[in-house]
Amino acid sequence: MTRNDQKRVTIVDIAREAGVSIKTVSRVLNREEGASAEVRSRVETVIEKMGYRPNASARSLSSRRSYLIGVIFQRLGGYHYVGEVQTGALRATRRGGYQLVVEQVETPDGVFDAEAVTAILRNTTFDGLVLTPPLCDDPRILEAVEAADLAYVRMAPNADLDRAPYVWMDDEGAAREQTLSLWEMGHRRIAFVAGPEDHRAAIQRRQGYLRAMAERGVAVPDAWIASGDFFGMSGFKAGDALLSLPEPPTAIFAGNDEMAIGVLAAAAKHGVPVPDRLSVVGFDNAPNGASAWPPLTTVHQPIAEMAEAAVDLLIKRFGDARFREQEHSRKLDYRLVVRDSVSPV
Amino acid sequence: MTRNDQKRVTIVDIAREAGVSIKTVSRVLNREEGASAEVRSRVETVIEKMGYRPNASARSLSSRRSYLIGVIFQRLGGYHYVGEVQTGALRATRRGGYQLVVEQVETPDGVFDAEAVTAILRNTTFDGLVLTPPLCDDPRILEAVEAADLAYVRMAPNADLDRAPYVWMDDEGAAREQTLSLWEMGHRRIAFVAGPEDHRAAIQRRQGYLRAMAERGVAVPDAWIASGDFFGMSGFKAGDALLSLPEPPTAIFAGNDEMAIGVLAAAAKHGVPVPDRLSVVGFDNAPNGASAWPPLTTVHQPIAEMAEAAVDLLIKRFGDARFREQEHSRKLDYRLVVRDSVSPV
DNA sequence: CTGAAAGCGCTTACAG
DNA sequence: CTGAAAGCGCTTACAG
């Protein structure tokens, strides 16, 4: 662990060694037009030979770009979502020559920290920001970001869609499709475990379930819809209640994988084998679901792809105004993931 | 989503408005000594009034610091570890005025990407790097980082401990303590599900278990130690095998929470109620374990605190050489987490 | 306690 | 196709 204090190689050194001006070196570095193939290759050789690495700060200062894109989370911890977003975002930032900076707005005790947002925006110089849910619908955040005059893209926003570019997937359509696939296996008594009422994805998934059932002419009794909060314990309680019904369902569709895992535990408690006597499906394709027993049938939510698209939308806005694409939103595809927690009736 | 093209307020504007030199403004900004209280407050007022935000690139260029700290992961996705590391690291970077940049070295298909490492180090200007396991023991990574002459700190390294500063926790001691706590509840037939043989934490945890049993005078039969790979399915198989023994254990200690959850599933399969007829404990304090049923007794691994300490060690090295602390390692404390998956015999 | 000058290493805007 | 000059907005090193 040392710091090298010997002088760094700069663009001037390269220019001198290659017998050209620094402007020409700059052209080669940035793949600009206007350098003959001969000069270009000579400069590249010298760069390679001297191990030259451009100074990012100098580049930023003169170009007025930080080459930093921030992604802000409510909470970084304990969440598969976070890693997926970063994986996707990183693919896009690398392609574009940007670096990915992470931030979160919650205090350690889980309180929303309005000052943190202001501080983040005050002390930093992002070229753009990716806002994840539920932050992307928080008016305090949006106002702070807009006051700082920062470009931003939202992931799966709930409302006010014209306000800024966004990426999304069709939760309702996916839930409908998942429900229909249970129907096609012969299931008729299909129950649903809903997520929190104020959560966009939860609402949409519930609507998709209801729509599918309505399309098949089924009036869903209230008892078939249990309410949950996206956490495992609520799925357990919901499953427990549903399996205690006089005529229990043959299939339970939980609004996310965590709750579906809770349903599996409830089935174990009731001595109901899955999938032989009960089919269970989830939503999200969380790693927990894949390692559950039996492995959970679910819907793949393309989180990484959504984040990648979000960064792409952002970067495109930084380009030359004449060619700047004004793509306002991008929709990503879901995919049903069939594992071992379902079987035909 | 707009970009403001009006001229930014700079240090020159503040200096003019406050009637001082830019050097004095700089002193106030950086809380340097040598500015009277009167001047200081006058400058601060002007800064506030004009909404001045220092340009980070300019600061970096002249101070030869990027104020960027990188944290490199093998894989960003699907892992509770990643979020915890970032949460802790972010606490420390914020305190020190740094930003946290994330990177991963695996390609999307899970292949180690040696070129990615070189590219990361080539295109970026970190002041320092946090290396997470198992990267922190990968000679290719270490060589690349050292060749780039970058300061770095390792989290829970396996070997070659003198090579660079590091943070760690006592996995062996924790596993010993967890085993002894089962013993004190009256358990005598305590089985262990081991993690992968090439994984430092897995080895240490197994040794802690064996040490505790040896201290109590028990020669552990081979059949009591099942081998796993830290994934849930291996825990399920291990539990299945252990519960099929002629004299099954009354307690199973799994080397991590994922495998412990698999053991719970095996217990359900065997119709063995947990904790009434079988106690199950894990290790890590992963969120999965908390939402398992029954909620899992485990050992809290202070991942966030380790990451925070790692960044602290790094930042201290950047300070004035005269006061630079040469703290080489820091040990963090574990903590037993008692939930509902254990009961006395 | 305060400031004038130089310089960090690039890109931009312009000229030829 | 190529380059000389100016400038980005700070900090450093030095002087008083």
UniProtKB/TrEMBL annotation, chains A, B:
PROSITE patterns tied to this protein: HTH_LACI_1, HTH_LACI_2
Molecular function terms, GO-annotated: DNA binding
Tree of life domain: Bacteria
CDD domains named among the record's database cross-references: HTH_LacI, PBP1_SalR
SMART domains xrefs: HTH_LACI
UniProt-listed InterPro entries: HTH_LacI (IPR000843), LacI/GalR-like_sensor (IPR046335), Lambda_DNA-bd_dom_sf (IPR010982), Peripla_BP_I (IPR028082)
Domain named HTH lacI-type: residues: 9-63
Pfam families reported in the protein's UniProt record: LacI (PF00356), Peripla_BP_3 (PF13377)
Keywords for the protein's UniProt record, in alphabetical order: DNA-binding, Transcription, Transcription regulation
Designated name of the protein: LacI family DNA-binding transcriptional regulator
Organism whose genome encodes this protein: Caulobacter segnis
